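Problem: given the chain below (241 residues), write out its structure.
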Amino acid sequence: MVSKKQEVKKILEIGCGQGFRTYLLSKQKNNKVIGIDASKKDIEICKKRYPRIEFLNMNAEKLLFKDKSFDQVLAIDILEHVDNLRKTIAEITRVLKSKGKVIVNVPHYKSEEWLLKIRPTYFSEIHHVRFFKEGEIESLFKESKMVLEKKKKKGFLQHFELYFLFKRKVKSDSQLSIGSWRDNFYTKAVHAFFLMFDPVVVRTPLVYFPLWIITVPIGFVFNWFGNLFLPKSFYYEFVKN
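Solution.
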């Protein structure tokens, strides 16, 4: 008989992008992870990079899974993009098992207001269709019988890299004229620099550069202080009744 600790946890990542987070989740013992994204191009990249993981081209507003299919659903920086927010939340709740968990990350409204001042075309360029004010996400998930388990503000340091990207004027397939950190060697180097201040660095090849032993604690202090005034995101964990 399989003990509870050994049971396979089925996880769905909505908006998996190019698959790195999905890959990290799949590395944890007993996780079975599926990544979905509305971008066919990103799904093709995911399948080439991580052929052992299941990736599907799918819209968050119509999840092609049976009811109560997953123990956990991730929607990281997704809900600000979807056209029908309530339908998306209803679909997430539908495919989640009883006592299952939803992890949600959305941009903080103060961050969005600041970024729009830097680049007024920001929303139209990457299809952000809404702000999330304080308490709004909690109310929406409460309507779907979800209980808030954890909430925090995070990501202050991301603003520095975003400022650099938003001031550039280049053409990009993924984010129109905003571009991406993947565009060239220079932008990759900038991304790698800021990654050195994030604990996720230990899951990347940069772990072999021991400078992160110093930079990650520095990043923690800067993020803690900066999140008091200008957090990048709201982070939530909800549990289904």
